[in-house]
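Q: Give me the 3D complex with 6-hydroxymethylpterin-diphosphate.
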Amino acid sequence: MPGVMGILNVTPDSFSGDGRPSGAAILRGEAMIAAGADMLDVGGESTRPSMTPVAVEEEIARVVPVIRALAPRIRISIDTRNAATMAAALAAGASVVNDVTALRHDPAALGVVARAGCPVIIMHMPGTDPRRMQAQARYTDVVAEVTAFLLDRAAALRAAGVGDITLDPGIGFGKTLEQNLALLAALPALAGHGYPVLLGASRKSFIDRLSPAPADQRLGGSLAAALAGASAGVAWLRVHDVGETRQALAVWAAIRHASEMAGTSLNPAA
Ligand code: HH2
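A: Here is the predicted complex, encoded as C-alpha cells.
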C-alpha cells in the first residue's frame, strides 16, 4: 500500500486554496497526522502557473516554524526549488527534499542534498519556472520523454552521490489533459524501473476538465486518481485530503487482499 504524504502549503496563493500562515499550518499538519499521514510535504512557494516567486528569506520564514513544530512527530519533506530553503528546512528537522524542478533550478541544490545524504523526490516539468512551463511544453511522445527525463536525471544524481531517489511524472505541470491521462496510464511502467514513484494528482485541474468542479471540490476525482496510482504500484500519494485517502486505500487494499485469497483457493468459485 502506498504511503500518504499530506500537502501542507504555507502560502497565500496555492492553487487549491488550502494555503495558510504558519500557525494555522501547524494546526492543519497536526490534523493530518491524526488522520493518518505518513509524511508531510511543507511548501512556502506556490508552483501554479500564476504564482509570484517568493524571496528565499520569506520562504524560509514561512516553512521553518512549521517544520520545527511538526518534525518531532512525523517525517517532513521540504517542497522547494531553492537550495537555501532546503538547507534551512533540513536544519529545522525536515529529512526529505521534494523539488519540482528535479534540482535544476538552483545550482547549489545538488550539493545541499548530497552533503545531507537525504532522500530526494525529483519531478518532471518543462523548464524550471512554473510561470513559463505551459509555453515550454512541447512533446512528441509525452510518456517516453518524461520517463527518459526522470531516468537520466536520477542517473546523474546517483553519479553525484545521491542515494535515495523517488520519481514523479509531474501531473499538471505543463501538460494537457490527454498528456496527464497518458502519464497516469503509464504509471505501472514508470514504477517498473527500480525507483519508487510518487503521484501528485490531488485536486489538479485535469479533474475539472473531466468533471467540472472548483479546486476544493475535487475529492472524488482525487481519490479515483489515487487508487489508480495504488493499483499501478506507486510508493507515495501526495494528497490534500489525508483521512479520505486513507479510507479509500484501506478499502482498496482489503478488496485486493480478498481477491488474492480467492486466487489462492483450490476452488475459487466455491
Ligand atoms: N504538485 C504541486 C506542488 N509540489 N511536488 C511533487 N513532487 N509533485 C507534485 O505533483 C506537486 C509538487 C502543486 O500542488 P500544491 O502544492 O497543492 O499547489 P501549489 O504549488 O499551488 O502550492
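A quick observation: The first helix runs from residue 22 to 34.
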